[in-house]
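[Automated response] Your request has been received and processed.

Submitted sequence:
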Amino acid sequence: MDDVFSLSGMVVVITGAGGLLGGHHAEAVARAGGTPILLDIAHQRISTLAEDINKRFGCKSLAFAVDITDEMAVEKNCTQILSLFGKIDGLVNNAANNPAVSSDGLAGSGRIEHFSVEDWSADLAVGLTGAFICSKHYGSAIAKQGGSIVNISSDLGLIGPDQRLYRKIGVADDQQPAKPVTYSVVKSGIIGLTRWLATYWAEQGVRCNALCPGGVENNQSDSFIADIKTRIPMGRMAHPDEYSGSLIYLLSSASSYVTGAVLVADGGRTAW
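Generated structure:
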């Protein structure tokens, strides 16, 4: 029986490949036998990553500096990839601004009272408009022979952020840190985009699903980690490589009858 989880021969475009999870997504694709095409504005970072992946997995990963909010740049890159490989089999819409929670609400403009329209527009430009542009061009290429699109959402695309996690002692209520509104809006919008694409290209053999990861432990304060663990049934945050299996499942023929779905991998947080 063929390995239904194999990505052998598949060319998979990964946006935001220079981010915390993007590199792990790229490695997972290479490990499964696919060719990861890395996109990010941080070209040196993804060039180094592509070289490392090629040495470790013997594939032909390539890195391209592409601003996914620039449609002409995306269209040009799509044409370039097609000229090199003749096809695109998969797309992982992973890129997003990840607005950090500041030490106080005013400094980072995390609170909606101080959140600027410019910051709102910038976050939506990458997280939603960028995903739309990439789906339009790379997705259209996938539709020529079929394949899979995986949109990276979040557990916070399904639930609101618990702002109590970010509270600071001694800070006035109207200046407390907050997870910015754009994060939830972008991640919820990604789920809507997923369902639209799943129905739009179904007859062309394109499947589109959303992956909703939970928080990844990544040098947060001990107090934050201890606090968020109490909200997660499994009692811990994720390790960066724990989403690889879910991603490969959604990209591969193992999920051949799965489309328009939302796969939640959050340690059970949204179950409470």
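Summary generated for your ticket: The first helix runs from residue 22 to 31. The chain has one domain: 11-271.
If you did not submit this request, please reply to this message.
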